[in-house]
Structure prediction request, 213 residues.
Amino acid sequence: MLIAALSLFFGNVFAQSAADLKNAGNTAFEAKDFKKALDCYDKAIAAWGNEPQNYIMIFNAGACAYKLKEYPKAVNYFDKVIAGNSETEQAYSYKALALKMMKKQDDCIKAYEEGIAKNPQSAALKEGLSKFLRAEGKNHYITGTNLYKATVAKVNAQKLKPKDPAYATETDKAKKEFNTAIELIDKSLAINPDDSESKQVKTACEQSLKSIQ
Prediction:
């Protein structure tokens, strides 16, 4: 009986400590002291024990990590929220943004797509994915344009001739960038067919491809 009583006592103290840390984290979070809030949340989550998970706290921990640019930790916490099937729309959105900041483009797209699959009515996730795809498409268009301009400059400087194998190699690199851009833009337009900026980028890519001899 004594052992049982001691176990119950220490269990209550342990749980109380975790709850106190969570509350301290909430106070710091409201005050926008994200560093302190994350530290409290980290400790609270570690000390939570076998109690039902508090996904609001875990989400807040992920949000703090994101604000502090601790993106891998943010992704880890948002994954916990998603695994608990709680607030998945916002969790997927933040996860995708964190992956974007980590320059993990494919993982970012996957996070958006998985989020939309779970939240098919989410305008925010669809808009986020559409914008990301458009931005990536524009980046490939710019890269392709710069590659082709550099090739043309070499031709104009008589350092390269259009019949040279090296010319075909360099223009093929530009073509690949333009085609990749079109693929991404088409995916963006599938989500938002009326996006005029995406249409402009696609048209520019198609014109650039036609101009390459």
User: Anything to note?
Assistant: The chain has nine helices and no strands. The two ends are 88 Å apart (CA to CA).
